[in-house]
């Protein structure tokens, strides 16, 4: 059973990796950073692949080569609005959606004042990136878990910009601009036709941690299952009652 939006098992390049292991890493990076493209042989980053194979660069360095390439720039910068470009950078490099307008404004300023490469570096050199992925782990979706410093509103926003590996990152319009700018919750909407068939008939399992009230403070974990149509409301109810969502997993 596939996960619609869930933390993947981290894919890490380890010392003395075989060629087969290396190809797994390379495919995972292309899938994560380039948004599920179909790459022609001529479009692959052969030089950067060789550097990775030889140990001259790390996985983070390989990602940097792609992110600063004309290919990435033409797909996700030149034909996207500035807000959409920043949404995609969060998705591709940090595995989550922007939290609020302040985060987006910060990155708009970085690009306007320091340029394109500085905007890419602001993700890849960030403490958040290094703490979660280090030098040799491929970034992955982290939006379905409660995390220190990450607001719960990020659940719905991550749903909005990530539709699983069958979806593409192409598209020039920002998906979150109104909700983020207005500090409004983001509704979970149905994926575009063809992106994920049968989504409305699926069910999802939500693991929740809840702190109880009373003379003795107790923390308990619970698991609930809901349909797709109930998912957004259930997430909001959990958040309103102070619960923390540990994971959201597609079960059928």
From TrEMBL:
Its main location: membrane. SMART domains: CpcD (SM01094). GO terms for cellular component: phycobilisome; plasma membrane-derived thylakoid membrane. Residues 1-170 form the PBS-linker domain. Residues 201-251 form the CpcD-like domain. It is a peripheral membrane protein. Pfam families: CpcD, PBS_linker_poly. Gene3D superfamilies: Phycobilisome linker domain. Belongs to the phycobilisome linker protein family. This is Phycobilisome rod-core linker polypeptide. The lineage of its organism: Bacteria, Bacillati, Cyanobacteriota, Cyanophyceae, Spirulinales.
